[in-house]
Each structure stands twice: as structure tokens, then as C-alpha cells.
């Protein structure tokens, strides 16, 4: 994951704010953050959380993903799973460490699914979703038959 580029993020937010013709105070109010805090973000002195970035994006009417990329939270070239990543980062019910863990697991799954695999060893059956085909259950051992009273038949 890329490192947080706070300075250019602040410059980008300031540029977007000016384009939207918001004063610093107006954007702070629309985003639900304090005026001094937004000023510190714009000057590159504060590192905003994903939730704050989402609030700012909403107020500026730009995508949160755009701010995540500017912040270095998301890599620009990765299109797959961008919405999922943004949702994880914006979730207020989990902490930052949990968010990073979820993203790391997701990246691992993506790598596993895109890594080319060599040919299967001879005699090995190709891997398939056996559960979906109903082939996953192993044969069960037979139970002794019982009578209506629960006694075993002899």
C-alpha cells in the first residue's frame, strides 16, 4: 500500500474547494469538520482518516476514491475492487488496523486468483468447486438398522 501523501492531498482538496467556489469555512461546515482541522489538512499538517476524506468528498461532490488515491490509500492503477476498498476504508464500525487487515486479505485473494499456475501433476484431477457440484461429501459409514423401539436388528 502506498504511503500517505498529505501535502499533495491538501493541495488537491484546496484546488477542488476553489473549483467548487467554496470558502474554507463553507466546505468545513458542509463536510462536518472544524474549520481549523480542514485548514490543517489543506496545509498538509494533518492526516485525515478515510471517513473524513469521504465526508470531504461528499461535500465537494467528487468520488471518495479520488481522494483515497490522492492520499495514497489506494493505488490509482488498480481498478479491480475499487468500490470494495472504498467501502472498507469508509466503514465507521471498524478501526484503521482492521481496515488494513481486510485490505491485505483482499489483496492476497486477488494475487492468488491472478497468479498463473503451472500444469497440474499427472493423475491429479483439476480443482473444481466440488461443493457446488454436490461431490464434496465423502461416503458415510453405514449405521446399523434399528427397530421402532430403538433396538438394533440382529
Global structural class: mainly alpha
Under the CATH scheme, the architecture is Orthogonal Bundle
Q: Number of helix segments?
A: 8
Shape: elongated
How many beta-strand elements? 0
Low-confidence residue ranges: 1-5, 128-142
The radius of gyration is: 26 Å
CATH topology: 434 Repressor (Amino-terminal Domain)
End-to-end separation: 67 Å
Residue-averaged pLDDT, rounded?
A: 76
User: Could you give the order of the helices and strands?
Assistant: HHHHHHHH
- Helical content (DSSP H or I, runs of 4+): 40-55%
Strand content: under 5%
CATH domain class name = Mainly Alpha
Structure description:
The chain is mainly alpha-helical. It has one domain (6-114): lambda repressor-like DNA-binding domains (434 Repressor (Amino-terminal Domain), Orthogonal Bundle). The chain is built from 8 helices and no strands. The protein has helices at 6-19, 24-31, 35-42, 50-60, 64-71, 82-90, 96-114, 130-133. The longest helix is centred in the last third of the chain and has 19 residues, at 96-114. The radius of gyration is 26 Å and the shape is elongated.
Secondary structure topology:
Blueprint (H helix, E strand, L loop, with lengths): L5 H14 L4 H8 L3 H8 L7 H11 L3 H8 L10 H9 L5 H19 L15 H4 L21
